[in-house]
Design goal:
alpha+beta; 6-stranded antiparallel sheet; binds zinc ion
C-alpha cells in the first residue's frame, strides 16, 4: 500500500513524496530509506520507492511504502488489513492491469485459489452450467490468461529444474527478466547490492518457528545492511506469517504449518520487494504480502 505522507528522518517532519523527490535532488535527503510512518506512535520503517532512481529509469513516480507491519492502533494498519482482504478476491489478471501482456512472457499468478476449487474439483463444472454467454466469453479470456501464468510454487519447480524463460513482473514493477534472473539466493549479500524497488524470488534454507500471533521464518544465511547512523549490521532475514492468514489458508500445506516446525530446515521461496531494515534497526525483514507469495519445499 502506498502512503500519501511519511516522516522524513532527515527533515524531521511529515512530507509528501513529491517534496521528498525535490529534497533528494537538492541533497537534503540522503537515502530513500530515511523515512518512517507519519503516525507519531507508529514510526515503522518506510521507503520512498524509486527516489534514488534517475528520472529516466522510473516506471512510476516515487511513492512511500511501508517495509514492516504498522502497529495495530495505526490507522494504516486497518487500511492495510482491508486491502489484504480485498486482494484475496483479486484475479490473476488484476495484478497486470495496464501492463502489456501480449508478448508471450510468463506472468506470475498471484490470485489465491478459492478453498472450494482446491477441495472440490467438481464444483467448477457445476457452476459452468448456469452461465450466460457474456460471462463464458470473459471466462475464456481469463482461462487464456491463466494458461500463461505460473504460481510461485510452479516457478520454483521450473527454476530448480534449470528451465529458463522470460517473465513479466506485475504492476507497478512491470519488468521483464529471465526466470534464472528472477531467483536470488539469500547468501550474505549487502541489501544495497540487491535489485532495488522491484520484485525477486528470494530463496534459501530457513527455519520456521512459532512466535506470538503467528509463525516466523528465518533464513539460515544472513544479509548485511547499514543503519541510519552508518553502522554495518548483519541479520538473518525473517518473514512474519500472521495466524489469521494461516488458519483460513486455502493451502493445505500452510494450514498444517505445525508439521514444518520439525526436522531439517526447509527450502523457502518468497516473491518480495527488496528486504529492509526494521525501524529499531536490528532486523532485516521481508514484508508478508500473502501466502500466494510464498513457497516451502520440504
Ligand atoms: Zn503506521
Amino acid at each position: 500500500m502506498s502512503l500519501i505522507t511519511a516522516f522524513s528522518l532527515d527533515l524531521n517532519k511529515n512530507i509528501q513524496s513529491t517534496e521528498a523527490d525535490f529534497a533528494f535532488q537538492k541533497g537534503l535527503i540522503s537515502s530513500q530509506k530515511n523515512f518512517r510512518c507519519s503516525t507519531e506512535d507508529c514510526r515503522i520503517a518506510v521507503t520512498c520507492a524509486n527516489l534514488e532512481k534517475p528520472k529516466k529509469d522510473r516506471k512510476v513516480a516515487p511513492y512511500f511504502k511501508s517495509t514492516e507491519n504498522h502497529i495495530s492502533s495505526c490507522p494504516f494498519a486497518i487500511e492495510e488489513e482491508k486491502l489484504r482482504k480485498n486482494s484475496k478476491k483479486a484475479t490473476a489478471e488484476s495484478y497486470y492491469e495496464g501492463i502489456d501482456t501480449t508478448k508471450g512472457n510468463t506472468l506470475i499468478n498471484l490470485a489465491l485459489p478459492s478453498p472450494k476449487t482446491q477441495n472440490n474439483k467438481s464444483s467448477m463444472t457445476t457452476n459452468n452450467r448456469h452461465e450466460s454467454p457474456t460471462s463464458s466469453s470473459s471466462k475464456r479470456r481469463s482461462e487464456h490468461f491463466i494458461n500463461r501464468t505460473k504460481t510461485i510454487s510452479a516457478l520454483a519447480t521450473s527454476f530448480l529444474e534449470g528451465e529458463n524463460f522470460s517473465v513479466t513482473l506485475p504492476y507497478p514493477y512491470n519488468e521483464e527478466l529471465s526466470l534464472q534472473e528472477l531467483f536470488i539466493e539469500v547468501n550474505g549479500q549487502d541489501v544495497e547490492d540487491l535489485p532495488q524497488d522491484t520484485l525477486r524470488v528470494y530463496y534459501g534454507k530457513a527455519w520456521i518457528n512459532n512466535v506470538t500471533g503467528g509463525f516466523q521464518t528465518k533464513f539460515l544465511n544472513a544479509l548485511k545492511t547499514t543503519t541510519y547512523d552508518g553502522d554495518l549490521i548483519e541479520a538473518n532475514p525473517t518473514i512474519f506469517l500472521p495466524n489469521t492468514e494461516i488458519i483460513n489458508s486455502p493451502y493445505k500445506k500452510f494450514r498444517e504449518i505445525e508439521k514444518m516446525l520439525k526436522g531439517r530446515p526447509k527450502n523457502l521461496f518468497i516473491l518480495s520487494d527488496t528486504p529492509a531494515l526494521n525501524s529499531t534497526q536490528k532486523y532485516i525483514n521481508f514484508k508478508f504480502q500473502g501466502l500466494q507469495y510464498l513457497e516451502v519445499k520440504l
